[in-house]
Amino acid sequence: MVLLSALYFSAGKIPWVSQALMGLKAIVVGVILYIAMELGERNIRNGREASILLSFVALIFNVNAVAIVLVAFTAGAIFLKAVQNKNAPRDKILQKSSSWTGIIGAFLVVLVGVVISFLLKPVTRTMALSFFKIGALTFGNGVTILPLIQADAVGHYHWLTMGEFADGIALGQITPGPILITAAFIGYKLGGVWAALLATFAIFSPSFVFTLFVSEIYSRIKHITYLKGALRGILAAFVGLLAVMVLELGKIGAAKSPSMALAAASFISIKYFKLDVIWIFFGGLLLWAIAVFLGFAP
């Protein structure tokens, strides 16, 4: 991703590279639309969840994305809690385990990373702390966090344009790798290789520690009805946040007819033909190159 970022920021203005990136943006729109719809089908089951999905309206009016997630967490705990299972075990949440030594050690490593971030120059410090914050809010999968990255990187701090953000997502997908590797793209633009490495650590490490912690106590908290409702609320909110991001990406990634056709083809390929994302990107780029060569695309 560092190599791709270096090539992008040094050669992104070359005409044929710009044309390829235009095709990549269209493919990203189709893929993210599919993910948003799949997430919605799994997590929007009734009117209460649908009302939390309306978080996308709040985001349109520039309400802080993290605040939306926290409100959704609270609303889910109150309104979406499941029926209590009276036969569920009542084990102690925390029990002695050798795993805790490793979990505490991993947490301390992340904490050291946060402390070091405060010693860096302002833009790098702000970037690192933003990604530590976003990484700590990872629920569902990495795609659900993209709207939070967009809110900070594009909307609040203006580190990237919306077009660059879409390009970063696309480059991350052709690595192939986890979609949150987009953080390395942002870090590279702001501070080169070391900032890219720091951004990668900051976005992944909190969720890594959180996963270790939850896996250790999950069997003892999975029956807490308020927690189940809270997580359902967050996932419903993320559907709304993704919906906004699809609209924003669509404005720059699929605004013209050839791009719209490629976005639609990408969506159909992944939803109905179940093609792997990496093949969708490479196949889509090949189709886009043919369309450009024949004069059907700009």
In total, the number of domains comes to 1
Order of helices and strands: HHHHHHHHHHHHH
Radius of gyration: 20 Å
Biggest sheet layout? none
Shape: globular
Helix vs. strand class: mainly alpha
Binned, the helix content reads over 70%
Beta fraction of the residues?
A: under 5%
Distance between the termini: 27 Å
* Low-confidence residue ranges: none
**Number of beta-strand segments:** 0
Task: Provide the residue-averaged pLDDT.
Answer: 84
By DSSP (H or I, 4+ residues per run), the number of helices equals: 13
Keywords:
single chain, 298 residues, mainly alpha, 76% helix
Description of the molecule:
The protein is mainly α and 298 residues long. The chain has one domain. It has helices at 2-11, 15-43, 47-53, 55-60, 65-79, 99-117, 122-135, 146-156, 162-173, 182-221, 225-253, 257-271, 277-294. Helix 6 (99-117) packs antiparallel against helix 10. The longest helix has 40 residues, at 182-221.
Write a compact overview of the structure shown.
This protein is an all-alpha fold and 298 residues long.
Task: Note the topology.
Layout: H1 2-11, H2 15-43, H3 47-53, H4 55-60, H5 65-79, H6 99-117, H7 122-135, H8 146-156, H9 162-173, H10 182-221, H11 225-253, H12 257-271, H13 277-294
